[in-house]
Amino acid sequence: MEYIGITRETCSWLLTHHTALDALAEALLLNDLSVLSRTDLAVGPLRLSGSEDGRVLGIWNAEYLSNTGNECWGLFRLGGNLSVLQRPEIATQVIERFIYVISQRLQGLMLEGDFIHRAWVNGSHTCLAGRGNDARQFSICYYEVAPGYDGLASRAIIGIGPCHNFDELTSGIEPEKARVVALVARCNSLLEKQTRRPALEDDRFNSLRSAVTPLDVDQNFLGSITVNTDGLEKSRALNPYETIHWTYGDWIKSGVLNSAQRRALSVDVLHGHPVRIIGPAGSGKTLLMQLIALRYLNEYAASGLSIKVAYLVHNAAMAAAVIDRFKTLGGEEYLTGGKQELVVTTLSEYGRRRIEIDEKMIIDRDDQKTKEFQFEQVRIALRNVLRQHPKFMNESNLIKQVCEEEELFLAFAVLVMSEISSVIKGRGLNDERERYINAEVPFSRFHRILSQIERTVVFMCYEIYHGVIFEQFGMLDADDIALSLAGRLRTPVWDLKRRNEGFSLILVDEAQLFNENERRVFSLLSNNVSKHVPIALALDEAQEPFGLSVAGIGNLGISNIENEKLPSNHRSTREIIALSFFIIQRTTDLFGSEFPDFTDARDASVPSEHPLVSDPVLVRRNHDQKFGRFVVKTVQKLRSKNVRQIAVVCHAETYWNELLDSFKESQLPLHVIAQRGEKIAPDQPLVVLSRPAYIGGQEFDAVVLVGLEQGVMPPRVVDNLALAAALEQQVLRETYLSVSRARFRVVVVLNESAAPNSVLAAARDAGLISEGSVE
Question: Per the database record, which ranges form the UvrD-like helicase ATP-binding domain (predicted)?
């Protein structure tokens, strides 16, 4: 690799992690990096990815990325003339010096005085090449550029050296000035690759892995978890209803927790570091979070010490379910307060109480119902803007498509709602219309792909939405509460109170459901006793229905978080697991080596020989039946095979009303899911109708997917490849979410003459799903 590009935040992070910095320098100097032009290396939060021409290696910490797609990059020459590799005897010190200079200068900070900084007439700067007697005999040269330089959106810096001769350095930096914009663009493109590349698994990078992801497990507690599995059938997974009445002690002593679950449970969140528990659907993340809570509550109760634990969920239905499960696990005494206290709440309800506002001032106490109401108002506002300003259709091809295609309109409305939330409100642009529309530096990835006309449409939607919610109804939405709560918790008053009123431990279940404004609050809830934020986040980002990009968790106040992976799926057949994994592998902004390969869960999956099991299948409507009636017939066939609980997930809004009417006419035992986390009788035969946004957290004997047809979902977008790719990513996540709900069967229903969308067509070609009928 000729150049190394590294983000400002990553440089700052490396300077506080000296072992990782040394290991990275060693990896850059001792390894053949050309392999990274075809693969990506993920080491904990650190990413190394090379351009396809083998010229630039981008390095970034995923926890500190913004959601704009434009980062502040520092670049320096690794190979070639005036490069680090020309002086291998001091190369480690030179890399360290470049990282320091990048960190300081991209923050607008001066270099230390003893580095002998000099400014030159051509705008370049020099300083000593490194610490130590040998490195101090050389200098490096760097040149800084500001936003607006040849269209550059963010600050950047490029460096060369080491070298003895100042004239050689200052003349050598001249050609680099012309390259910096193209190099930064190439680095930014590495963050948003259109196709996913394979993860690099190479022993030569083991020292870097060890330095970045050190082992930090409470071995005493790990040893206390039983691993004896005598009496259990290893040939099958435990049915969830067999364990529904188990207590905390039963789970610890049963031996059914696998090694990944035992390790995650043993991480010392209170005294060690924050932890993020990553796992696919059916891996037991929620159970594990509850066991973590009870682990500390029981330990502190045994020693007579005080502890206050927050367990945050997204909506009221989930909170009720979690409280019931804690009672079953034996934690009821902690729910009533005392020295060991467990608080199960939604963030919105906690915020309402903390900022002391009346219920009449909020849309709804339930976060999800509030956000549904928000979306409905944004949808109405968008429709009004497009109706009242038809000229926009003539000025923007995208707006014209949004007006004409209902599925694209709804998908665009979701993105507008997110933009209002995280950018216009989150960045305080409420009264900054011109700044939002004409900003040269994008505020988000969505903002970056919009023209000025399209940004105008978005801001007009916000103005109408704000006029209705804030001025007409006189209410606060979920973002208003989150932002107000964050403001209240950033005051000296809270600093004084938080030791007593803050939480010793914070557990966030299904963290992917919280938006950026809400995630900023997490780090402010702790009692600030420990140096780190004592938090555990459980998430499967693939279950975020809209796949919206948010800033890295490090940018949101939670530093040095470590990942714990749960690679096992305890729900589905091997065929369904393989299909789920194939789908999620095709996401470019989510899937990487940090996402667990759950296809290896041989002992945890439902055996393929089970009498209710059948391979995933694509079925097509008969020409003599209406589509809704055909879906009902498909469900009736499954019921005739003794498949008791069936979910029909409608991915295309255009089919929703027809499906709803057809199922109501059928007299089948229908349950329409209206919110995520809704309680469903586990032992009753039923048919569930749901949208993808509400299906998470559930499981069924069979899942029927509707609407995943070419040109329908994802909706077709012309002349805007970035938006088309974003919508495709959304549909991939929704499809994974639906497929992963199934235990025994997955059926995809297509309309007559319709073709499956690209991911299902690829799965069919790979032999993971076949066209046929329900057998």
Answer: 257-543
Q: For the chain, give the number of residues.
A: 775
Q: Where are the alpha helices (DSSP H) in 330-427?
A: 347-354, 367-388, 391-395, 397-404, 406-419
Count structural domains, the chain: 4
Distance, CA of 513 to CA of 511 (rounded, Å): 5
b vs e for 155-187, b when ≥16 Cβ sit within 10 Å of the residue's Cβ?
bbbbbbbbbeeeeebbebbeebbeebbebbebb
Q: What CATH number corresponds to the domain at position 558?
A: 3.40.50.300
* Lowest model confidence (mean pLDDT) among 32-36, 479-483, 621-625: 621-625
Position 695, amino acid: I
Same domain, 591 and 511: no
Mean pLDDT of the chain: 88
Asked if residue 73 lies in contact with residue 156, where contact means CB atoms within 8 angstroms, the answer is yes
Closest CA to 190 of 1, 368, 333, 352: 1
Pairing label, strands 139-145, 125-128? antiparallel
Instruction: Give the pLDDT band (50/70/90) at residue 216.
Output: low
Residue 349 located in a structural domain: no
If 0-12 CB within 10 Å is exposed, 13-18 middle and 19+ buried, where does residue 356 land? exposed
| 527 and 456 in a common domain | no
Give dist(CA 565, CA 586) in Å, integer: 20
Model confidence band, residue 232 (pLDDT cutoffs 50, 70, 90): very low
Range of the domain at 124: 3-211
Q: Which residue has the higher pLDDT, 102 or 471?
A: 102
Asked if 74 and 108 sit in the same domain, the reply is: yes
Q: What is the pLDDT of residue 471?
A: 86
Q: Note whether 526 and 588 are same-domain residues.
A: no
For the stretch 689-747, pLDDT in tens is 999 988 887 889 999 999 999 999 999 888 888 788 878 888 998 999 899 899 999 99
From the number of C-beta atoms within 10 Å of its C-beta (0-12, 13-18, 19+), residue 194 rates as exposed
Cα 417 from Cα 545, distance rounded (Å)? 14
Residue 181 lies in a domain: yes
**What is the per-residue pLDDT across 442-470, written as a single tens digit (0 to 9) for each?**
898 889 889 999 999 999 999 999 999 98
Q: How many CB atoms lie within 10 A of CB 405?
A: 18
